[in-house]
């Protein structure tokens, strides 16, 4: 990754890679009309000039019929497009890119030119532009005469399959699909989403050579409020993923980054159209970005420019960041965590389920070796936010171990933990979103509402929901919906547990500070208590049925019958993000993870700190506690998807895997420092910090 310091004091408006005389170059334009041509390998400025009016809005490098490499630049408009008296006219001119000399005006329009790309039609050099709510393709020949009065080779007004598409939106790019040159177009529709304040873009592949109006040959809807940042080709890779010969079409999008209910800037996602994989780039973030793909020395680069809003670092002050895109692209640097669950497979062997992007790993919890994987069903990647798994659960349904995978775009899938095959799919709608999932059972015969007494049976339960609720309760054995329960505010957690000898469903509600207990079969609210907004667990402490939930830097443990406080755990220095309760050899244990990346163990009876189990460089996403061969095992997953396993063997704490710690801080330290400084005494023969 490298940074070019460019356009100080002016917002970058366009980036485009090209090749001039066999030399890779990058052109950038700014809101003050300045244009610079760079050598992306050295970071040197090759040429500087200005557009005749307004500022540069789009660029394309074009090879003319006589072999010359020229730069087509679209310009026009005022720096403030929202001004009522702003100039909305646009134009396209040809330039000699290494000198900045303007060769010839190509065409003018009463509307702004939003996108520009070089293409070829019938073997002729051409340039395509988006303006006047349509796409036009112009032949260039040798670029010696203006073409504003000539008829375009092809134009398209946006009519598609009998209906009118939303307005076109920049950028515009070229690619190869099924062995044919196509144009990559983006349309945008506003006023979507539950509050009508979101937008949705769709990527279209348009073949301009198929008739006067061309033809749409493929379409890829994006998720709500996901914006196309750049489109290009992945250098050095065949394009079976893109449906034909040549280099695959690669897409970068800007997506708002969420941390709970808050939006913190954007992240940049990269994926191949029609292909698998993809990931998130560790580039700088800001309010809006401009980007472009290019090939330099046989490798693919993504250039991104921050517009200056919400700058996060000095390099974001209108600089251009160049990031390598490996082939095949796997992505790094952003959340891939998808939850943890511990249980057994069909052979009654212990198995740890680890959720993540596109697949769920099944791991031997003792050795850390992968024993299987199950693919997450993919409804429509581009419409449903990567169709990634965001929560997992493991349980036994009617005598058969099953993995429940909740994800964006596919509801919940029940999978065989040995083969990875999908056994049953549970969807509230064809493209339902599920971010929480829990498995449980009634433990005894119950009579479902509206059934005969003879139909009473043990019911295997599955609860799932999105953050906005409601919570849907299913019969996991039959796939029947049993009912739903209300989830006011934003849902933060789901959990099944036993209270007073019967199975209840607990729901946590972020922002409202509530914990609610439900009869999952009848959907009846049983209790409502004050709680927290991070994590939720049910268990038994000192003979009392309790619930535990995080609120800021505290864990509140309350009696599940009357809500009275049992204990309060004070986590030092960081917000609690997740927690788990378990009983090991008759002793209750509480495990917490926090926003500083620390995993700690506590005595839930007294609230005393026991030991630090693991440390991460990123926020702790989830923790799980289980008993294997009468020994306690603790598993923790960071926001980046890294998983650590600890075993409490006799009186010793052992980190089983991975072998290398993500953070060099010493395990076994006190909650606010080394052991002995604030650490409560640990009972001999049970658990003690590493010495």
Automatic annotation (TrEMBL):
- WD repeat boundaries on the chain: 26-48
What's in the keyword line of the UniProt record? Repeat, WD repeat
Q: Where is this region: Disordered?
A: 660-691
Pfam families, alphabetically? WD40 (PF00400)
Q: Where is the signal peptide?
A: none
* Superkingdom as given in the UniProt entry: Bacteria
> What is the protein name given in its UniProt record?
Uncharacterized protein
What is the species of this protein? Streptomyces neyagawaensis
